[in-house]
Write a structure and sequence with these properties.
Shape: globular
Number of strands: 16
Structural class: alpha/beta
Number of helices: 12
Order of helices and strands: EHHEHEEEEHEEHHEHEEHEEHEHEHEH
Strand order of the largest sheet: 9-8-7-11-13-12
Largest sheet: 6 strands, mixed
Distance between the termini: 25 Å
Oligomer: single chain
Mean pLDDT: 95
Low-confidence stretches: none
Radius of gyration: 18 Å
């Protein structure tokens, strides 16, 4: 097995515990890995602005993969290394199509996620679990109307996120999106769908980062739990899936670690990387 030089880890359900925190144990393990010459990369569906404070404070973490691979970002220099975004015109067309369904729509752009005031103020309507609710409330900047916010802007959109009240409506939208050729979609939470441009995913973002850093695929370890981690797990030399992960992700894993509640990422790093005793 090739020596691991880079670890890419999903956040929600993987690196973060159920309180959406990174334990001190895991933080110390990341520091040990970086000290040993390993790059540690958060790879998330979140936008840059929703990076947990624990990671923002860690000078050891320089690069991140955000919005499911739409943006690869240098946190030290505050610059984009790679982007694979939607054009505004296409997003407006997709929003118009999606308005027929019972759902909440948000968009991520310039490192920030935006949600509409009416939906955000009535978030209880969607009957979300506490974790999903807190992620949404904590990451969205409120605007009045998506179409008004987007039109006439000279920007691009990293991804679109849909949240549903019922799994039946989620199924309906999943089937409808499967008929649209220029989009790719996945899920990271029980009642959501995340839409990206075709070919945009965490695996694509990771490949571009590896090229920039001169690291080979077989020298990487990826950790994840959900559908939006699939491509990243597939291209990595060591695919690690959490015990709390989806069975479909476990099926493609090289190794199943303990859950996100038990420092699963840290335990996998300890197993496959030679770490010093002190961080």
């Amino acid at each position: 097995m090739a020596e691991i030089k880079l670890v890419a880890a999903d956040m929600d359900g993987t690196l973060l515990d159920k309180e959406r925190k990174i334990t001190q144990y895991t933080q110390n393990t990341i520091r040990k890995a970086v000290k040993a010459g390993v790059e540690f990369i958060p790879a998330t569906g979140r936008a840059v602005n929703a990076l947990p404070p624990e990671l923002k404070a860690m000078k050891e973490v320089r690069y991140g993969i955000f919005s499911n691979g739409a943006t690869v970002y240098d946190l030290w220099e505050n610059k984009v290394i790679y982007r694979h975004h939607f054009e505004i015109k296409r997003v407006l067309e997709l929003i118009q199509f999606l308005r027929q369904f019972d759902l909440m729509i948000s968009v991520s752009m310039n490192g920030q996620s935006y949600g509409e005031r009416k939906a955000m103020e009535n978030i209880d309507y969607y009957e979300l679990d506490e974790n999903t609710r807190e992620i949404i409330v904590g990451s969205r900047k409120i605007i009045e109307n998506l179409e008004e916010h987007l039109k006439d802007r000279n920007d691009t959109v990293e991804k679109m996120t849909l949240v549903f009240r019922s799994m039946e409506e989620r199924k309906n939208v999943w089937m409808a999106l499967s008929q649209i050729e220029d989009v790719q979609f996945s899920s990271s939470l029980p009642k959501n769908i995340e839409i990206s441009p075709k070919g945009c995913n965490k695996g694509d973002g990771l490949l571009h980062l590896l090229e920039a850093l001169g690291v080979k695929k077989e020298e990487t370890m990826a950790c994840g739990d959900a559908d939006n981690d699939k491509e990243m797990l597939e291209i990595s030399g060591k695919a690690v899936v959490m015990e709390n992960g989806l069975e479909s992700m476990k099926a493609i894993a090289d190794y199943i670690t303990v859950s996100n509640q038990e420092d699963g990422v840290a335990k996998a790093m300890e197993k496959f990387i030679s770490l010093d005793e002190t961080p």
